[in-house]
Amino acid sequence: EAAAQTGLPTVDDPSWNKVFQSGMSFVAYVCGEFSITDGAADVYFTNDEGNNAWLKLRIMDEEGNILAETGLIKPGEYVQTLSFTSAPEKGTELSLRVMSYAPETYYSRGEVTLNTYAS
What we know:
Layout: E1 5-6, E2 16-19, E3 28-31, E4 40-47, E5 54-61, E6 66-69, E7 77-83, E8 93-101, E9 108-117
Antiparallel strand pairs: 1-7, 2-3, 3-4, 4-7, 5-6, 5-8, 8-9
């Protein structure tokens, strides 16, 4: 991912939370609520430095159309802002799909989907 930055972002958004549940093979962080302005939103998608996985975030509408996505980010990296191919209207239901891959082989290491809405 060309826009990836190294380190842990400084985030003032209270919706920025850890994504982890027992049994998951990775830990990620993302803003669960975000405002879309001029076709972009700050999501602060972060791959925890302790992971042994590359992560990707995909934002989809209720029909499953991909509206925005990152490339693969390595452990200890984050992507602050995502640009949308088609910005959804305020209140639109969205799915944040976090996918994990084994480094170098790209084999799936699991995924999780979070439901939210455009604000």
